[in-house]
Design brief:
Elements: E1 2-5, E2 14-17, H1 20-99, H2 139-142, H3 148-152, H4 157-163, H5 175-215, E3 226-229, E4 232-235, E5 242-245, E6 248-251, E7 257-259, E8 264-272, E9 277-285, E10 288-298, E11 305-306, E12 311-315, E13 325-332, E14 335-337, H6 340-344
Antiparallel strand pairs: 1-2, 3-6, 4-5, 6-13, 7-12, 8-9, 8-11, 9-10, 10-12, 10-13, 13-14
Helix pairs in contact: 1-4, 1-5
The structure holds zinc ion (ZN).
Pfam families: Peptidase_M23 (PF01551)
Protein name: M23ase beta-sheet core domain-containing protein
Organism: Symbiobacterium thermophilum
C-alpha cells in the first residue's frame, strides 16, 4: 500500500509505502495500550476507594477505642469517688463506734452494797467501764432502712475492682457495656452519698444525745450509801414542825468521796447559809442543777468544768445536820424534784 502526503503548498509531496499487516499490528498495539491504561486506572480507582474505606474504618475504630478509653477513665474516676465515699462511711462508723462506748458510769443499785475498796482511801474515783455500749444507740438504729443494709453489710466490690484496674466479668469490651457499668456505679455513688449524709446526720444527732446524757444527772453521788430520809414533806428533826425536804439524805461515813452525777459547771463551792453547810452546786445545762450539802470539804472551785464521776467533795455533817450524810438535790428549771429516780437511772436513760 502506498500513502502519498500532498502538502497544500507547492512544495514536494511525500509518499510512503505502508504494509497493511504492519498497520493492523500498530493499531492493535494502540488498542492494547489504551485498554491496559483503562484497566490500570480502574484498578487504582478501586484500590484508592478500598484504602479510603479502610482508613475511615481505622479512624472509626480509633474513635471507638478513644471513647472506650474515656469511658473507662470516667468509670475509674467514679469508682474512685465510690471508694472515697466508702472510706468516709468507715470513718463515720468509727466515730459512731467511738461515741457509743466508754460512757462513764456512777454506782448503780448493785453498788449499794459495794464499799470503797480498803486501802484506796477516801479519794478513789468510781469504777468506769470503757466497753459499755449505749443501748439503743447502734449504728443501724440511726440509719434509714434503705441505707443501712448497704452500708453495714454490702461492700462495693465493683468499685474496688475498677480501682484496681479489673473489669467486672459481666462487662464486655463494648462501649454500651462500659456505659451500663458506669451508670450502675453512678447510681451506687448517689446511694453512697445519701448514706454519708445519713451517717453524718446520725452522728450529729448521736453527739447531741450523748452530750445531753453526759450532762443529765444519773446515778448515785456516793458509793454504798443508804437513803436515810427521802424527798418530800417530813417532820423536822430539829423541832421546826412539818417542812418540805427538798432533797434526799444519803447516809455514809465521814470522808466518803462525793462524785458529780453529770457533766457541768460548778456554780457554787462554799459554805451555804440555811443549814446546808459546805455545799457544791453544779449546773449541768438542759435545765438541770444538782446540789451536794453538809460536805466535810469540797474539792472543786466555782467555774470549774466537771464530768460525771469527778470527785467534788467528801461526806460530812456541816451545817444543820444530825450526823454524816450527803443531802443531795436535783433541780429542774429551778424546782427541786425527787432525786430518787435519778439515782437509779442509768446515763443512757
Ligand atoms: Zn437533807
Amino acid at each position: 500500500m502506498q500513502l502519498i502526503v500532498v502538502p497544500s503548498t507547492n512544495r514536494r509531496s511525500y509518499s510512503f509505502f505502508v504494509y497493511p499487516a504492519l498497520l493492523a499490528a500498530g493499531l492493535g498495539l494502540v488498542v492494547l495500550v489504551v485498554a491496559a491504561l483503562a484497566l490500570g486506572l480502574r484498578f487504582f480507582q478501586t484500590e484508592a476507594a478500598r484504602l479510603r474505606a479502610e482508613l475511615a474504618e481505622m479512624e472509626a475504630l480509633k474513635q471507638q477505642a478513644r471513647l472506650q478509653q474515656e469511658e473507662l477513665e470516667r468509670m475509674r474516676a467514679t469508682a474512685e469517688q465510690v471508694e472515697q465515699e466508702l472510706q468516709e462511711i468507715r470513718r463515720l462508723e468509727k466515730d459512731l463506734e467511738h461515741m457509743t462506748e466508754g460512757e462513764d458510769t456512777l454506782p448503780s443499785r448493785s453498788a449499794l452494797t459495794r464499799r470503797t475498796p480498803p486501802g484506796e482511801g477516801a479519794r478513789g474515783g468510781p469504777e468506769t467501764s470503757h466497753s459499755q455500749q449505749v443501748p439503743g444507740l447502734t449504728l443501724a438504729s440511726i440509719l434509714p432502712d434503705d441505707v443501712s443494709p448497704f452500708v453495714l453489710g454490702k461492700r462495693n466490690t465493683l468499685a474496688m475492682d475498677l480501682k484496681l484496674g479489673r473489669l467486672p466479668s459481666s462487662m464486655d469490651s463494648s462501649l454500651q457495656s462500659s456505659r451500663a457499668v458506669r451508670a450502675q456505679l453512678a447510681r451506687q455513688l448517689a446511694q453512697l452519698r445519701d448514706s454519708v449524709r445519713a451517717l453524718a446526720d446520725g452522728r450529729d444527732q448521736l453527739a447531741a444525745k450523748l452530750d445531753y446524757l453526759a450532762h443529765k444527772p444519773a446515778g448515785w453521788p456516793v458509793y454504798g450509801a443508804e437513803i436515810t430520809d427521802p424527798f418530800g414533806p417530813r417532820w423536822s428533826p430539829f423541832g421546826y414542825g412539818w417542812q418540805f425536804h427538798d432533797g434526799i439524805d444519803l447516809g455514809q461515813d465521814y470522808g466518803t468521796p462525793v462524785y458529780a452525777t453529770g457533766a457541768g459547771t460548778v456554780v457554787y463551792a462554799d459554805w451555804l447559809e440555811g443549814g446546808y453547810g459546805r455545799c457544791v452546786i453544779i449546773d449541768h445545762g438542759y435545765g438541770y442543777r444538782t446540789l451536794y450539802a453538809h460536805l466535810q470539804d469540797w474539792n472543786v472551785f466555782e467555774g470549774q468544768e466537771v464530768e460525771r464521776g469527778d470527785l467534788i467533795g467528801w461526806v460530812g455533817s456541816s451545817g444543820l445536820s444530825t450526823g454524816p450524810h450527803l443531802h443531795y438535790e436535783v433541780l429542774v428549771n429551778g424546782v427541786a424534784v425527787d432525786p430518787e429516780p435519778y439515782l437509779e437511772s442509768r446515763p443512757e436513760e
